Structures are given as C-alpha cells and as structure tokens.
Amino acid sequence: MSDRPIDVLNDAKGKRVLLRLKNKTEISGILQALDLHLNIWLDDAELTDGEEKIKLGKVLVRGDTIILASPVNE
Amino acid sequence: MSDRPIDVLNDAKGKRVLLRLKNKTEISGILQALDLHLNIWLDDAELTDGEEKIKLGKVLVRGDTIILASPVNE
Amino acid sequence: MSDRPIDVLNDAKGKRVLLRLKNKTEISGILQALDLHLNIWLDDAELTDGEEKIKLGKVLVRGDTIILASPVNE
Amino acid sequence: MSDRPIDVLNDAKGKRVLLRLKNKTEISGILQALDLHLNIWLDDAELTDGEEKIKLGKVLVRGDTIILASPVNE
Amino acid sequence: MSDRPIDVLNDAKGKRVLLRLKNKTEISGILQALDLHLNIWLDDAELTDGEEKIKLGKVLVRGDTIILASPVNE
Amino acid sequence: MSDRPIDVLNDAKGKRVLLRLKNKTEISGILQALDLHLNIWLDDAELTDGEEKIKLGKVLVRGDTIILASPVNE
Amino acid sequence: MSDRPIDVLNDAKGKRVLLRLKNKTEISGILQALDLHLNIWLDDAELTDGEEKIKLGKVLVRGDTIILASPVNE
After folding, report:
1. Which residues of A touch B33 (CB under 8 A)?
2. Domain-located, residue D56
3. Is B39 part of a structural domain of the chain?
4. What is the pLDDT of residues C20-33, one digit of tens each?
C-alpha cells in the first residue's frame, strides 16, 4: 500500500485518465505530467460539457479546478 | 486519545470510507492512501450523484473538495 | 484568559461539540482530536441537514468547511 | 496610532464584540481570545440569523468566515 | 512613484477611506491601521447595505472580503 | 521575450490600464504601483458597473479580485 | 515524457494559446510569459464572452481564474 495519494496517477502516466472539474465539465486525455498541486498535462484531450464534446489536443488543467481524477480502463 | 484528526482515517486504510463532497455528491471506496491536504486515493470507488451511481474504479479525490470522510461499518 | 482561540475546543475533548458547516448542515459528536486548521475528528457523530438526521459514527470534518464549533452543555 | 489592525480587537478582550459572517448571520459574544487568522473564541455568544436568535454559549468562530468584527458600546 | 500598492493607503492614515466589499456592501471610516493582507481598522465607521446605513464605530474588516479601498476627498 | 508575466504591467506604469474584476465590474486608471499578488494602485480611476460609471480617484484594488489587467492604447 | 505539467505551455511560447476561465469566458492570444501560479501574459489577445468578441491587445491574466490552457494548432 502506497502512502501518497498521487501515486494512483503516477502509475497512469501514458494512459488515459478522466478528470471531473468543479464547473461540471469532464476532460479525458493521455496523462503526460502532473505535480503536487494536481496541475495536469493531458494529450489528445477531449472536454465534455453536457451534450457538447470539444477536442482540445494538448492541454494544461489547473489543479484547483479538479474534483477527482481517475484512470480509465481500456 | 490521539492528537491528530487524520488518524481516524489512517486507522481505516484498506477499509471502505464514505466521502461527502462540496458539490453534493458522495464517493465511497477502499482507502488506499491519504495526505495532510486530505487528498485521498480510493480503490473500487463509486460516486453517488442524487439518483445516479457511477463506478469509478481507482480514483484520486482532491482534498479541498471534501467536506467530511467517514469509515463505513461493514 | 487564554491567548489561543482553539483552547475553547481543547477543553472540550471527550465531550460533545456542535459544528455548523458552510453548506448549512450541522454535525454533533464527541470531540476526539483537532488541529490548527480546525480539522476535527468526532465519534458518535450525527449530521443534521434540514429535517434529515444521519448517523455517521466516526468522522473527520475538514476545517475549511466549518463556520463555528461550540461545546454542548449536557 | 497603532500599526496593527488586530489591536482594535485586542483592546476589546473581556468585552462584547459583534461579528458579521459571510453567510449573512451575526454573532455577538464576550471576546476571550483571537489569533492572526481572526479565529475568535467568544463566551455567552448569541447567533442572529434573520429573525431567529440562537444561544451558543462558548463558541469558536473560524476566521475565514468573518467579514468584520466590531466592539459593542455598552 | 512608489513601488508598493499599499502606500496609497499608508498615506491616508487618519483620513476617511471607502471600502467596497465582496458582499456588495460599502464601509467608510477613518483609517487607523492596515496590514499586508489588507486587514483594516477603521474608526467612526458606517456600513452601507443598499438603502440601509448602519453605524459601526470601531471595526476590523478582514482583508479577504475587500475588493477595493479608496481615500475619500473631503 | 520576458520570463515574468507581470512585466507586461511593469512596462505600463504611468499609463492607463483596464482591470476586469470577478464581480463583473471594470476599473480603469493610471497605474502607479503593483505587487506580485497583483494588488494594484491606480490614480484617476473610474469604475464601470453595467451602465453606471463612478469616479474613484486614487484606489487600491485587491489582487485576488482581478481576472485580467490590460494596458490601454491611447 | 516531462515531469512538469507547465512544460506543455513553455513549449508554446510565441504561439497562440486558448484559455478557458472560471467566469465562462475564453481568451486567446500569443503566449509571451507565464509563471508557476499560471499567471499568463498574452499579446494580440481576444476575449470571447458568449456572442461578444473584445480585442484586448496585451493582457495579463491572473492564474487563479484559469481552468485550462491549450496551445492552438494553426
């Protein structure tokens, strides 16, 4: 058992993760990098806002807007 | 009697805990790791948003979105 | 007269306290531990949300969600 | 003339002060202790929420919920 | 030209200043003291909340509730 | 190319800048001083709140209420 | 693979980036500088607020208002 919560994301680098944001949108993308503030760099990212889906490509998501981050089983 | 509030969760590692979040959702899961900001890694997690239940699997919940965390008696 | 506001809670360890939270709920429970951020561990806790009462048992309440904490006269 | 804003409250220890909170409630009580975060311990406290008045007795009010604090002329 | 924004208030000590707060109220008073968090001690203070005016006398206003502070030309 | 975002404002000292605030108001004024928190001292300032325009003269705007700051081309 | 999320923006200096802000507006511009708080200096910036588009020219955007930043493929 790890002692650091962020390790659940460190193990997911190079894989797809799903972020739920405080503004009720979701973003999925390939995890490239993250830091202790939970700032996250995703590649091939897609934002879901209700019915709308928007391709973002590369994106930096600011940590303080994130509710949760979850690796996606593919 | 312990002097650190977080010890109530340290004693619950490997067991199921319930989180109530500021956005009025709840998440339950098996507690894997936590830190002093109350960032929490859960396995086998399930999010409850009103009537809706969503399986999340592994998830990192950002501490500043959490109102309370409670070990579940099973 | 003490110089630290938190001493009003340190004197209440092992006794019942009432917390009012920013989301308009209240939680009462037996105070087990607290820290300078006002993170609080309660035992035998009960959450009151309008008309609804929910038994929580052991719970960690995050300090930044708390408006006030008050020892209960029993 | 003092250089520290908090001295207006240090001079009011043992006297009644009025707090206006961000959630539109007011609390008055006898000032016992305060710190630089404006966490405040009041005795004989009473909360006013619109028409409703609630006796709180001893209470710790978290500094980040306070808009202003004012000594009461009695 | 000064390098510190707060000097515009340091020069106004002993004079009347107007504060606009995040909760859409205004407070005017004689500036007695301030700190780098913009916590402000006013004397002879008056709060304006829409049509209502309330005499506060001495008051400490918490810096994080302030949008702007402006010396009043009298 | 500079490495510090704040240099775009340092180059605008003595000139008019426009601030957009989180409360949907705008303030324009002559930039006198700023710090790393983006606390800003303006002279000859004017606040625009929908249709209403209010002359403020000298004003200190708290950095955490600012969304963006932009030099005005005159 | 980089270890710092902010590198996705460092690689985009001199190119156009799109910012989504917490107030539901968007700003695009040529990235000139950024810091670890995600404060960002853009040139040739344009703000989109629903149907409305506003030319801003040079602008400093405060980091804590940003949800995400994404390099634009041109």
Report:
1. 1-5, 7-8
2. yes
3. yes
4. 999 999 999 999 99
